[in-house]
Design brief:
- With 330 residues, the chain is of the alpha/beta class.
- The protein is 52% helix and 12% strand.
- The chain folds into 2 domains: 6-231, Spore Coat Polysaccharide Biosynthesis Protein SpsA, Chain A, CATH 3.90.550; 234-303.
- It has helices at residues 19-35, 56-66, 81-93, 113-122, 139-154, 171-177, 187-194, 217-229, 234-262, 270-303, 314-327, and strands spanning 6-12, 44-49, 70-74, 98-101, 126-131, 167-170, 198-203.
- Helix 1 (19-35) links the parallel strand 1 and strand 2.
- Helix 9 packs antiparallel against helix 10 (270-303).
- The chain is elongated and about 95 Å long.
- Bound molecules: uridine-5'-diphosphate and magnesium ion.
- Magnesium ion is lined by residues 103, 105, 107, 208, 213.
Length: 330
């Protein structure tokens, strides 16, 4: 195998406090990997400036003048972590054999990048960085994260627990990822859908060494909800279920009201009112649920996700050989 060209993609939003340190440390990692003959000399760092309002882009630009590893990609406006990362991956994939994504704050342990590359050499197409401990996270972030992964698993969404966007992907895995055309990106949910062989590398998550988290609670909740609604129609099913339940209760309530009526225990008009309230309410919820089911289907269609990924194909190969033979007249 030839030495692979590696590109490390780093999305940056208002990261002027951390940029220089990150760039220095990652350059050092590349040098070590080149010295160990794990990657090609053509390997690069690609910093994606996600519409920062501070001096991040100026720093990237000036650093790219001194450090031949450093390249920059500037986005026209802030599009959020996931989209910025995607922009970086698509740009990087054109000139790389494999791409690693990592956050600019170096909370993820860069010393395991070597292990990522070793897995790549063993033939894995995707290598997930998985947090071993969350000691440095707050109690709140830790418990919400654990709850989130449990919930996602319950409603049938496959995620790699404790894996954020620190991973290596081969060129062919990336090319399959690019076929997912959805606008609401949740990369850590999409990558497992790509398939191919994958490995995990464990590490300890550190504290942000400068600057502050760009994920306040509100963004975190929005991110979690995106993750759920992009991969599952379970919430819509739940509405349908409530509708059925209401209908069922309305039948029971109807029987009860009729009995009360026959026994003469009721004020006139009560029975018909109670029955219609329950029945109409149940019917409405049921209707909403069914319409929701269809919207859910349309929703998945509109995404135009690819239906399969080809890993090997002997059929097309032999067919092309046949075509070549025909073309040269044998
Ligand atoms: N980021 C980005 N665009 C945004 C928000 C964040 O590119 O709109 C980047 C940010 O610069 C960092 C990464 O996404 O490299 C993760 O952000 P952060 O470290 O703030 O998230 P946390 O680690 O707290 O979840
Ligand atoms: Mg961070």
């Amino acid at each position: 195998m030839n030495k692979p060209v590696l590109t490390i993609v780093v999305p940056c939003y208002n990261e002027e406090d951390v940029f220089m340190e990150t760039s220095t440390q990652l350059s050092h990692v590349l040098e070590m990997l080149i010295a160990d003959s794990l990657i090609s000399r053509e390997s690069k760092l690609l910093f994606v400036d996600d519409g920062s309002k501070d001096r991040t882009w100026e720093l990237i630009e000036s650093e790219s003048g001194h450090n031949s590893f450093v390249k920059g990609l500037k986005l026209a406006k802030n599009v959020g972590h996931q989209n910025a990362l995607m922009a970086g991956l698509e740009t990087a994939a054109k000139k790389s054999d494999c791409v690693i994504s990592i956050d600019a704050d170096l909370q993820d342990d860069i010393s395991v990048i070597q292990a990522f590359l070793e897995k790549y050499w063993e033939g894995y197409d995707i290598v997930y960085g998985v947090r071993e401990s969350r000691k440095t996270d707050t109690f709140f972030k830790r418990t919400t994260a654990v709850g989130f992964y449990r919930f996602m698993e319950r409603i049938g969404i496959k995620l790699v627990p404790n894996h954020a966007d620190f991973r290596l992907m081969s060129k062919r895995a990336l090319e399959e990822l690019f076929k997912f055309k959805e606008t609401n990106l949740f990369l850590r949910g999409l990558v497992p859908l790509v398939g191919f062989s994958s490995a995990k590398v464990y590490y300890d998550r550190k504290e942000r060494f400068a600057g502050e988290s760009k994920y306040p609670l509100k963004k975190m909740l929005a991110f979690a909800f995106d993750g759920i609604s992009s991969f599952s129609v379970a919430p819509i099913r739940f509405v349908t279920f409530i509708g059925f339940l209401a209908m069922f209760i309305s039948i029971l309530a109807g029987v009860y009201a009729l009995i009360q009526d026959l026994l003469g225990h009721t004020v006139s008009g009560w029975t018909s009112l109670v029955i219609s309230i329950w029945f109409v309410g149940g019917l409405q919820l049921l209707g909403l649920g069914i319409i929701g089911e269809y919207i859910g289907k349309i929703y998945f269609e509109v995404k135009k996700r690819p239906r399969y990924a080809i890993e090997r194909d002997s059929f097309s190969v032999s067919q092309t050989n046949q075509q070549i033979k025909e073309a040269i007249g044998h």
